[in-house]
Write a structure and sequence with these properties.
This protein is of the alpha/beta class. It is 39% helix and 20% strand. The radius of gyration is 21 Å and the shape is elongated.
Length: 271
């Protein structure tokens, strides 16, 4: 099918999923834009780990990204549709769209406690609200070998900006989205996982001195306010990044990269 009208019901449905969080969860679906991240989605779809309900692409995009998308899919599968350049511009939330879009079903993930892994490593995002930060941290977590991520009271995991900045991590990692920080901490402690609160506090233990040989979870807090005091009290230990010069804080994505690297490197070193 070739879609040239911006008022086509399929296009309107995609745009509403892209812009309306409530509608995403009513439908249990989310959207993916961009050739590279769509390629990652195609791989998970072919592996049976992701359900793609619709794919839209311009003819130019299919010809350009032959390593990412198979042109025969548009004849073989009814959910694949060609679209005009004007329609692609309407669907995109970027100024220069690449012309590849996907609708997919949300991935439901549960945590059962990896008790068989003596050095399991976990990330807890506590009240992070910037989609770019969340996506970057998810990508970092996958890169350093984190086993699962918990998002507590954060921005929507399926916000298109999270999906784009995470670069496919959302399809591959175990990510649990919940509102209750205390329930996550209870669950982790019940599985003998030591929980570390990352704070700006000269009395906290320096991240480079911490022994991460045990099962560990790192908590990163809100961009402006850090981790709430009540949430810090629920954690086992406080850790900090010792800084030099006049710098007294880091962007949460930058701090997270350092903290996660040390946690996962330490587990490998001591495991």
């Amino acid at each position: 099918m070739f879609i040239s009208s911006k008022d086509n019901p399929r296009i309107k449905h995609y745009i509403k999923l892209s812009t309306n969080r409530k509608f995403r969860y009513e439908e249990g679906s989310f959207v993916i834009e961009g050739a590279r991240v769509c390629r990652d989605a195609f791989e998970q779809w072919q592996n049976g780990k992701l359900i793609i309900t619709s794919c839209f692409a311009t003819q130019k995009a299919v010809e350009k990204y032959t390593d990412y998308i198979d042109p025969t899919w548009f004849d073989k599968y009814e959910q694949f549709h060609f679209i005009s350049d004007d329609v692609a511009q309407k669907m995109s939330d970027s100024e220069y769209p690449q012309g590849v879009f996907i609708e997919a079903k949300m991935i439901r993930t549960a945590f059962e406690g990896d008790t068989e892994d003596e050095n399991g490593k976990y990330l807890i995002l506590d009240d992070l609200q910037d989609p770019g930060n969340v996506g970057t941290l998810l990508r970092t977590a996958e890169a350093v070998g984190v086993d699962a991520v918990f998002m507590c009271g954060c921005c929507d995991l399926y916000n298109p900006k999270v999906i784009r900045s995470a670069m496919g991590t959302v399809f591959r990692m175990r990510i649990i989205h919940t509102k209750s920080f205390s329930e996550v901490i209870k669950l982790l402690k019940g599985n003998s996982i030591t929980v570390f609160a990352s704070v700006i506090d000269e009395n906290a233990e320096s991240i480079t001195d911490v022994d991460f040989g045990c099962k560990s979870a790192m908590v990163l807090g809100n961009e402006g306010n850090g981790i709430a005091d009540d949430d810090i009290e629920l954690c086992d230990k406080k850790v900090t990044i010792t800084m030099l010069g006049n710098t007294n804080s880091l962007n949460v994505a930058s701090a997270g990269a350092i903290l996660l690297w040390e946690m996962c490197r330490g587990g490998q070193k001591n495991g």
